[in-house]
Fold this protein.
Amino acid sequence: MPKEAKKESSYSAKDIFVLEGLEPVRKRPGMYIGSTGPEGLHHLIWEVVDNSIDEAMAGYAKNIRVELLPDNVISVTDDGRGIPVDIHPKTKKSALETALCTLHAGGKFGGDSYKVSGGLHGVGVSVVNALSTSLKAEVHKDGGIYTQEYKIGVPQYAVKKVGKADDTGTKITFRADASIFTEIKYDRKKIIDHLRQQAFLVKGLRIEIIDQREEVPFYYAFCFEGGIISFLKYLNEYNDQIQDEPFYVDKEYDGMPVEAAFVYNDDTETQELSFANNIYTPDGGMHLTGFRSALTRVLNDYARENGYIKEKEENFTGDDVREGLVAVVSLKLREPQFEGQTKARLGNPPARSAVESVVSEALKEFLQRHSSEAKAIVSKALLAVKARKAAKAAKETVLRKGPFEGLTLPGKLADCTSRDAAESELFIVEGDSAGGSGKQGRDRRYQAILPLRGKILNVEKARLDKMLANNEIKSLVIALGTAIGNDFSVDKIRYHKVVIMTDADVDGAHICTLLLTLFFRYFRSIIENGFLYIAQPPLYQIKSGKDIRYAYSDDEKDTIIAEMQKLKGDRKKEKADAKKITNESTRDAEEITEGETIKGINIQRYKGLGEMNPEQLWETTMNPATRILKKVNIDDAQEADRLFDILMGEKVAPRKHFIQSRATTVKNLDI
């Protein structure tokens, strides 16, 4: 359960500190919420929820409810102390109005209302208020129910008491401004994932999600008594642990509570999640650096003291000791310094000392008390050392220096003549047939073609040394020019568009997935820099006389057929022909065979890129003026990591469960 707060801490109007006005928010919303796209929209929810989380961390709230209501309305309710409603000594207005209408006005800037906080109470809520067409605050406090409503941040009336209450808490209900955001569409899964994470970080806190946007409401709730130990079990759900007992420490250092836990599994991937005041820091920061330093140093000391590392042998590297590691680091501090309002990285130097000291002391004791776990962890690191050395030898073989341009490019690569990476494109194609069409149809100046033979190795199940023994992967690594592993540098990439171009069938989808696994595991920066794409070849060629058009979906095919029929008929028959062809063209895609003719219109279903001649491949899939490319993004690295483990890992049961649980929602199934 949340820890009890000290009774002497105050939380009244005098604890709301005013720093500046609210006007800049609507002019530059991206400065406050990161963007006006989906991330910024959901950030509004996080800001309001953060305030409720802060009440829970302070020991005053035990329940939080988030409701997704019709008409894009969001409501967040907690059972904390309630935002103060008495008159603020400086603004001479209610503290509730001050917190909701003044930027940088809140209980986190001074006084002792909160020892630590994530959301800056007043910053977050006032920003949400400024970016909402309407917002209503309802406070249960001091035996009364108080309310105030706002439109685009402007109060519609003074705070008023509307009833009696025998409980305490705050309810914020808002509707985001559609003129600010590109689209108002809340993602329930995204919200559930974020709130699950928050529930893990506050032991015993109950968080409910209620989605009332559909006829049948959706209900989900979280409450984890185990805290981050429960979090570890969730993160490690699809892997086998090599430890029976996870490492865990919860201790305060220089006024900063440090909580850390980890466990090793039989995988080679690393999962490290760091949090500062319950805010996820995807780019890490000082607290994660402190954890890594402690882990590496203590394991090296233990390995040397117990003879696992001989006198003349080199120490474990940080990568060696993190192979197969699943760790959660949570730090709480008084004044966190984040890089940017979106809080991706923690910058406080004392955070490193706090985490490093706490973890070092606790880990030394853990290794002494749990000898079997210590042996398993060190043995895992020793195996990583052997793999690293083998991989280094393999990399040196793959990335050997050539006499002229640094690297000897693979013979199967048809390179472009341009040496400007910004304009150069690499098409990774399936098989020699498509490779031949691509080589003939491309623009040689800036487009390169690399054909692959068959399906590449599934790198989810292989170490780097085995992976680099695969000729197809070896050719791709050399062609990219970035090197791999510790030598990887995205700045050396030879193409700023790397395009996966496979057939539109099951085998093509499998090859695409294998390539995506490779890029996610070993070339993630290529994805993060926006250099990876997936080509969308057409499914159909539709021909009526000299009129040749291409359809990339069944719906587009139906539309094209209907349009061609209208052009073929005379004006008297136009309406009748259009109606008739609409009925005929709505048949399922599998009913249309290659070369089928409907009313003089020839429909060809492409089964592979090799069926296209070079001109068709250029026109439909490679020409920048007409092609369709999908950029590959990583919206949630943690979720992406989990899905790759499920779908591409060695365990069959999680993959089987994943497929069965989604079988009824499949839209595109190749039979």
The longest strand covers residues 132-141. Residues 540-605 form one domain. The two ends are 52 Å apart (CA to CA).
